[in-house]
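Practice problem. Given the sequence and the SMILES for pyridoxal-5'-phosphate, write out the predicted structure.
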Amino acid sequence: MTDSAPESWSITQAAELYGLDRWGTPFFGLNRSGEVVVQADLPEGTGAVSLKELATGLRQRGHDLPVLLRIENLLDSRIRLLNTTFEKAIRELGYCGQYRGVFPIKVNQQAQVIEEICRFGQAFHHGLEAGSKAELLLALAHLPEDSLLILNGTKDRDYIDLGLWGQQLGLPVFFVIESPNELDLLLERSRTLEIEPQIGVRMKVSARVGGLWTETSGDRSSFGLSIQQILGVVETLTQANRLHCLTLLHCHLGSQIPHLNDIEAGVREASRVYADLARLGAPMGYLDLGGGLAVDYTGFRHNHVHSRDYDLPDYCRTLVRTVGQTLDDAAVEHPHLITESGRATVAHTSVLIFDILDVMHFEPGNLPCPEEVPPSLHCLAERIARIDEEAPEDLIREAFICRDQLRQQHLQGQLSLAERGQAEDLFLALIQRLTQKLEGLTDPPKLLHDLKQRLSDIYYGNFSVFQSLPDTWAIDQIFPVMPLHRLDEQPTREGILADLTCDCDGKLDLFITGKGERASLPLHPLKTGEDYLLGVFLMGAYQETLGDLHNLFGDTHVVNIRITGDGEFDLLQEVEGDSVGEVLQSVEYDLKQLNNTFRSRAEAAVRKGQLSPSQRQTLVQAYQNGLQGYTYFKR
Ligand SMILES: *Cc1c(COP(=O)(O)O)cnc(C)c1O
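Answer key:
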């Protein structure tokens, strides 16, 4: 079966190579046939399902790749873990308040995700955070009773009225004031509707945090109120005889915060302001510390934008301890703690599965014998001959100059196309031999990395970065990517991944491996007649609603599953991806008109004798099928 694999290769090495044992634990692992499995906690033990088999099963049911797979068990596990870890920290540190988690809807607004969070989270009173009217409307329908609803974002009259009615329905709603004007409107609507709101204030935290999303913290952050403005809110509430409505302080330091000390500094500042508000006479009771709990995308657990230097127990203990200590010092009662963890709640639940369509290699063709190299190409051939004599850096620099001069000569008509082809081959041969030579060294120079990148294959994947992984091009987010099978076989190629769009940004060229980030991914050579499937992991947060229709590639199919036993799963929901017609309609094309225009064109061809009437029928049918089909590559 694994004819080319050396005997020594084991799946343990594969797990190390791709870092699966770092970023994947405990949800993803390998089975003995070298396939990636998703693992779920079940009452009777762990249930494992191979993603390759799952993809095959989905295909048999008519779902082409790419497909976005959501595994509900993983979402449940994360909610349970978040709540129980906070509860444990609260117990161990003797903290007097409770933990109340809320899920910020913007992180994944998909109906199945929100419904599952509300269903499973009910036992933990896990609530929702809404930042817009649309999010508020869906929360009002789904939120379980006794779970908190935190209302952030800019609020107009309709938003405020809906929130007040939510409170009238018995839901614990908190209006978080983000701008001074909002408060006047809220007080006015509350008087008119005769419903008293629970009010929170969002503070700007002056402590700055590291990471890719730092703009939400610091004095100049566009979110939240300054200390002066918070004092203004207290003043307004006092004058309106409504200070007793102020029950919550909110802050949000940013997302994916890598460094625990940064979080601690922000939490200390917020706790201090909380204590001050309590001492100014507000009843308070809730401290909402926002999001920021990071996902360890690399699995290295260090202070780096794609990782974090803490784990969940560290995070929970730090929050609970810092708030507890600050309030003890100020002699103020401990509040209930709220966090709005989005990324850390949903990232693990989704995996994008796609197939590889083709590979492009960068390897020299047959080189001419040395005596047959035309004189014009001697400069390159000589460099190859001197490979052991010159410093590699010098050799490469000179080779680039030679190659570029030769390209120039070809442009000016002084070099034939055949010679140009030989020049490119000689250049690649030089890089290849130099790479082999440097790889043998115990301490290879930095140059090797660059050379390897020039030789790495391009694997063409059946997906769109812009649709499925928008953060990879928008903000250089990286997600773990690896083959879903053949992991009992040593990968012998190095490649980057290009998507289906005709855009130079439509690629993945930075990867997570067990040794750190890398510019190419170890991959297997394609086998004819056999699929090669890859998965992108930890992509459940922020990707699904940002996706855009680059080159008119639409939404992928989405399939929700629940693992029910070892090797067994239920298909809970299958959502068809966009058809070509739907995507065209979304950019305002009229399908009827497109159809008619195409029909007329085909009819004109019949009149001119270019097409028979029955050929026209075939063509018209194919056009219609095309409009109904999937936007991705169909096997
Ligand atoms: C985006 C956002 C969050 C979610 O942050 P994560 O880092 O994904 O947990 C929480 N609260 C507010 C106010 C937000 O804007």
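Check your answer against the key. The chain has four domains: 1-72+346-361+457-577, 97-341, 370-453, 591-628.
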